[in-house]
Design a protein that fits this description.
By secondary structure, the protein is mostly beta strands. Helices cover 4% and strands 43% of the residues. The strands form 8 sheets. It has an 8-stranded mixed beta sheet with strand order 27-26-34-30-35-32-33-31, with helices on one face. The protein has a 5-stranded mixed beta sheet with strand order 1-3-8-9-10, with no helix packed on it. A hairpin with an 8-residue loop joins strand 5 and strand 6. The longest helix has 10 residues. It starts with a strand and ends in a 6-residue tail after the last strand. Involved in sporophytic self-incompatibility system (the inability of flowering plants to achieve self-fertilization).
Length: 413
């Protein structure tokens, strides 16, 4: 086995040992073995080379720590990266690609992406493997968060168990594509918080996006992929998003003017962000530091006594059930500055306008609300919800218009 002689890459049968590392060409990222926190276990990871504190963005053997200093990272003849322990036993390896392997090279890119490629062919679609396809707890500029629909690959964040243990923890942040795609934070299989869907300007559950003036954020949805991605626009700034062991998504920012990082909450700021806090058909509104739930127009508490005691999980039900015998018997009430409801059971169309969206909703007796998909340029696209509306909140500004279906009698028509 040959020791690596190149700064940023490994050729076939080249390796690095514990204490050695690969460094990206621009010096930003380093690949090597490390011990997190107070742990004595050794892990292969990628970290920012010149940021304080040590900021690890990816871990290979996160479930299988090595217990001595004789660890090795090697690129084998099949183009597979392998982490070996002191007895030369594999504890982790990259996936084997279906592509033809020809002169494979493993390289840490200036983006922090650890890749395996054929020779010097660095086109993303030709890569044999890349760490960006298998995120840990950190989203970085250029990393896709979401789905490759052709292969079924789901790129999502998963928290560490603790600051000392990078094994997969309880929390994950992923793109839910069961309806119109939305970003959700989960604890196990339960949704804890929805950052929501992309409306052309922001995520509906996180409209402030404190870094949006210094980042370019993009949502891509086509027949092949559904994903979110961003890039930093300010060359003097480094930013990442991390899902910490407590289930909180944080934006971490370093600037050339500051020697320490700035921590910015990325949603989940208050109690109203708790998923479905108010039950169905109700809107959460923060009054001071306390949440308050209010039934939608035309709805009343399902369990009034519990509701009056601030036990809101039972939600609200229609005061008068719509007869749905004709479109003239129903109308819509507009709510402004709203976090749109859970879109997992929604229907969407990218080309319809808002008037067409309203007409379509009226034709379906189960349609409970509608809104624009994209709020740029006066709005475009159609998003429909059916039956119960879950997980809404009121913002003091920003947010989006939502049109709730109610019987004409509720509108005074």
């Amino acid at each position: 086995m040959k020791t690596c002689t190149s700064l940023d890459s490994l050729a076939v049968n080249e390796s690095i040992r514990d204490g050695e590392s690969l460094v990206s060409e621009d010096g930003t990222f380093e690949v090597g073995f490390f011990s997190p926190g107070n742990s004595t276990g050794r892990y292969l990871g990628v970290w920012y080379r010149n940021l304080y504190p040590l900021t690890v963005v990816w871990v290979a053997n996160r479930e299988t720590p090595l217990q001595n200093g004789s660890s090795v990272l090697k690129l084998d003849e099949k183009g597979v990266l392998v982490v070996l322990n002191g007895t030369n036993t594999s504890v982790w390896s990259s996936n084997i690609s279906n592509q033809t392997v020809n002169n494979p090279i493993a390289q840490i890119l200036d983006s922090g992406n650890l890749v395996i490629k054929n020779g010097q062919d660095a086109k993303e679609e030709h890569l044999l493997w890349q760490s960006f396809d298998y995120p840990c707890d950190t989203m970085m500029p250029g990393m896709k968060l979401g789905w490759n629909l052709m292969t079924g690959l789901d790129r999502f964040l998963s928290s560490w168990k603790s600051a000392d243990d990078p094994a997969r923890g309880e929390y994950s942040a992923k793109v839910d594509i069961t309806g119109y795609p939305q970003l959700v934070l989960m604890k196990g299989s339960a949704i804890m918080f929805r950052l929501g869907s992309w409306n052309g300007l922001a995520l509906t559950g996180y409209p402030t996006q404190q870094l949006k003036q210094k980042q370019r954020y993009k949502f891509v949805m086509n027949a092949k992929e559904v994903y979110h991605v961003y890039e930093d626009l300010d060359s003097s700034m480094v930013s990442i998003y991390t899902l910490n062991p407590s289930g909180i998504v944080q934006g971490l920012v370093w600037t050339s003017q500051s020697s320490s990082r700035i921590v910015i909450a990325a949603g989940g700021d208050d109690t109203c962000d708790n998923y479905a806090l108010c039950g169905a058909n109700s809107i959460c509104n923060m009054e001071g530091n306390a949440p308050k739930c209010e039934c939608l127009k035309g709805y009343v508490p399902k369990f009034p006594e519990q509701w009056n005691m601030s036990y809101w999980s039972g939600g609200c039900v229609p005061r008068n059930k719509s007869t749905c015998k004709g479109s003239n018997l129903d109308g819509f009430w507009r709510y402004r500055h709203i976090k749109l409801p859970d879109t997992s059971l929604s229907w969407f169309n990218k080309t319809m306008n808002l008037k067409e969206c309203q007409k379509l909703c009226l034709k379906n007796c189960s349609c409970a609300a509608y809104a624009n998909l994209d709020i740029r340029g006066g709005g475009s696209g159609c998003l429909l919800w059916f039956d119960d509306l879950v997980d809404m909140r009121k913002f003091s500004q920003l947010g989006q218009d939502l049109y709730i279906r109610v019987p004409a009698s509720e509108l005074g028509i």
